[in-house]
């Protein structure tokens, strides 16, 4: 069975380390804030000017002026700092973010990512994605493995306009966790109940499959 959005966020949260500064893109990445392991100190950074973003607010915590880059209301943790977007992008471009989690439309075996434009369709735009992929070494892409029509999004070459080139090393889809190296996707884990055969069928780009592919586990 394919992973839910919450399970994808929960799996990404396992990549966090104590003391990390982390930027979460819009969509599934924002949910990672709800799965930070207890006792771990992570500072979430948002490109609109917030360092120390907390979980989504309960109804009585909502502050319409406290939003993330996707214009969703958020909370701030103790010690948070609010500043201009110029300072926020200086952090990003200066390589001061330890982990970036982004959504994408496509990625390919060369680590290219397309996440900002589908010709002929109205999309929100680039946002901070281009700066994030240029300024970060540690990026995880979260996306569905295939379109609703069954067409692979893990490609030999991206077909859409690129956000960045050669910058993606890790991909978590609703079917699998993969790493990109040496011109191929390397299958590391599969979603519970998802067969290796299904992943092979829905991966257009070159896929390296080890003899044993463990299933992800969720408490």
TrEMBL record:
Protein name: CoA transferase subunit B
Top-level taxon: Bacteria
Keywords: Transferase
Gene3D superfamilies the UniProt entry points to: Glutaconate Coenzyme A-transferase
Keyword 4Fe-4S attached: no
Species for this entry: Amphritea balenae
UniProt-recorded Gene Ontology molecular function terms: CoA-transferase activity
Entry keyword Transferase: yes
PROSITE patterns: COA_TRANSF_2
Family, per entry: Belongs to the 3-oxoacid CoA-transferase subunit B family.
